[in-house]
Design a protein that fits this description.
65 residues; 3-stranded antiparallel sheet; 3 strands
């Protein structure tokens, strides 16, 4: 599949730091929700990687490539 020059909608992929808690804390909602997020990259609605402005990094995707 060949993609257009730019994604119609750009999504931001974020990662969060790991938080380790006990099962009891989890079961009783006894843990904070504050978390640090890290920017991983940008992608379209299909998960194809693109730049912040929607320009695809590699315009060829799909099982045929």
């Amino acid at each position: 599949m060949i993609l257009k020059d730019k994604a119609t909608e750009v999504y931001v992929r974020l990662a969060a730091e790991d938080i380790i808690i006990t099962k009891d804390e989890y079961d009783n909602d006894k843990y904070g929700t504050d978390c640090t997020y890290y920017l991983v990259g940008f992608e379209d609605e299909e998960g194809n990687e693109c730049e912040e402005d929607g320009t695809y990094i590699n315009k060829k995707y799909g099982k045929d490539n």
